[in-house]
Amino acid sequence: MFLARLKRRPCYGGLDLAAVNDLTGFVLAWPVRNFVYLYPWAWIPEEGLAERSKRDNVHYDDWARRGLIELTPGNVTDWRFVTARIKQLATAFDIRQIGFDAYGARDTVADLAEDGIETVDVRQGYLSMNAPCRRLHELVLSKRLVHTGHDLLRWCIDCTSVTQDPAGNIKPVKPDRNKSTKRIDLTVAAVMAIDCVMKATETNVFSYSGLRSVG
């Protein structure tokens, strides 16, 4: 019902590609009046799922059974599977643009572009991530971010902290970068989707206060 009501509305995506065998996240954001609706998709390799669930101490296997995460064949993320799924989503929703991190993603976005899906590089530095990160937080504080309570998205957000540069710009990071059990892929994808929404709709950036900070 949540997605069915959004099918005819323009939306914007954020794609965070995994490194080899970790979580790949894709989030669509629909600006509707003063609200933003979010919905995520995620992928992880099928082989070694039980071991990965045990290593990260999270319920990947249960989330897969419930359809909250999609499994790609083999022991590394199959980008063809991911791009095919996004192309399928593009036939169901009015996706105007997808933001991505250019690092390691050129072939993937080129594949999407062949189907007429517009993509844009969203750099992962402080300056480029600052505005959408602040905007996302403001939407949460003002209760204008609408979602389904998706367990995997909640977990990624719970794993997320922010770090700040000397100029006060912020970006999302893992609380402890040396611990592999934390995943923030859907958070990063959501921030990139919000960045595309902001640029497309010329949304004002509101004040920032109080995301958990590290570093």
Give structural notes.
This protein has 215 residues and is α/β, with parallel strands linked by helices. It has one domain (7-214): Nucleotidyltransferase, domain 5 (2-Layer Sandwich), CATH 3.30.420.240. The protein is 36% helix and 24% strand. It contains seven helices and ten strands. The strands form two sheets. Strands 1, 2, 3, 4, 5, 6 and 7 form a seven-stranded mixed beta sheet that branches. α5 (126-141) packs across α7 (185-201). The termini are far apart. 36% of the residues are buried. The model is unreliable at 203-215 (pLDDT under 50).
Q: Concise description?
A:
With 215 residues, the protein is of the alpha/beta class. The protein has seven helices and ten strands.
Descriptive tags:
10 strands, globular, seven-stranded mixed beta sheet, 7 helices, 215 residues, alpha/beta, single chain, Nucleotidyltransferase, domain 5, three-stranded mixed beta sheet
Number of domains: 1
- Largest sheet features: 7 strands, mixed
* CATH class type: Alpha Beta
Question: What would you say the CATH architecture is?
Answer: 2-Layer Sandwich
What structural category do the secondary elements indicate?
Answer: alpha/beta
Kindly state the mean pLDDT as a whole number? 88
CATH topology: Nucleotidyltransferase, domain 5
What portion of the residues fall into strands of 2 or more residues? 15-25%
SS field, number of helical segments? 7
End-to-end separation: 41 Å
